[in-house]
Amino acid sequence: MKKDFLSIKNLSKQNIEYILELSIKLKKESKEGIYYKPLEGKSFALAFEKPSTRTYVSFVVAIQQLGGNVVTLPQSSLGNRESLHDISQTLSRYVDGIIIRTFAQSTLESIAEHAAVPVINALSDKYHPCQIMADYQTIVEHKGIGKKKIAYLGDGFNISHTLLEFCAKVGYDLSVATPKGYEPDAGIVAGALQEAKDSKLEITNSPEQALIKADIIYTDTWTSMGKENESAKRMPLFLPFQVNSNLLKLAKSDALVMHCLPAHRGQEITDEVIDGPQSIVFDQAENRLHIQKAILCYLFE
Ligand code: CP
Ligand code: NVA
Known about the structure:
Elements: H1 13-31, E1 43-48, H2 54-65, E2 69-72, H3 84-94, E3 97-101, H4 105-114, E4 119-121, H5 129-143, E5 149-153, H6 158-170, E6 173-177, H7 186-195, E7 201-204, H8 207-211, E8 216-219, H9 231-238, H10 245-248, E9 256-259, H11 271-274, H12 281-300
Parallel strand pairs: 1-2, 1-3, 3-4, 5-6, 5-8, 6-7, 8-9
Helix pairs in contact: 1-5, 1-12, 2-12, 3-4, 5-6, 5-12, 6-7
The chain binds phosphoric acid mono(formamide)ester (CP) and norvaline.
The site of phosphoric acid mono(formamide)ester has 10 residues, from helix 2.
């Protein structure tokens, strides 16, 4: 049966650890100039309804390094010209996998349901699973294996949702601090709490509370793609959640700072912090390439 990669929720802890180990191996080998071509002769369609730098480029390079070919759909919106059902069926006759960046998670789920080939979530409004898998690798590389506490400061949107489901699976503690009214989706929080066995998950409106004993401080844009017209309204509400050198002092002294990027310097994170010694944001960005190679290998093994 074909496998899709739509969320962390659909993965077991074993799947997550398998992908992590494979990515670490592929990264080491690529640094030594060793490349395998398990996707030789396979083609992939990329359809992005939103802008992208990291995800798009790292997927194209990942597929090329694994020996596959890429075709990018010229239109930017799915489902306007014909039904998702018909797009899925058609693409399945041409390509071996479909990589989608979209708004509604239901778009991805519908394409996955009707496609005969694996579908990968390259970001939706609900989840960003490839990002959080790359972040896992980055944390393990910098902090080793074992329990960690992540403090997420900012909008309760796709990154925080994915972190909630991820931390529940791997046993990390997570405190999500958002302004009032911007908390993560209640259904996702409830599902993650139910799943969590060894992890403590907390939702708060206090950044100071979230930062207590944090090993990792994670932030994301205050205004996600598609919500640009809310930017002015959000700015003053989110300002107390800015990751700056004062807030940094509230976490553990060796805490590391993460951001999925793109960053809005001077808003959710200051130059001093993103360019400072505790920042590992470009290691995160690099690991998108390695983890996506591992995800592709996992889906096509
Ligand atoms: N982090 C991330 O997904 O970046 P892009 O939007 O540039 O792909
Ligand atoms: N929350 C951000 C993540 C970008 C990678 C967005 O959806 O725009």
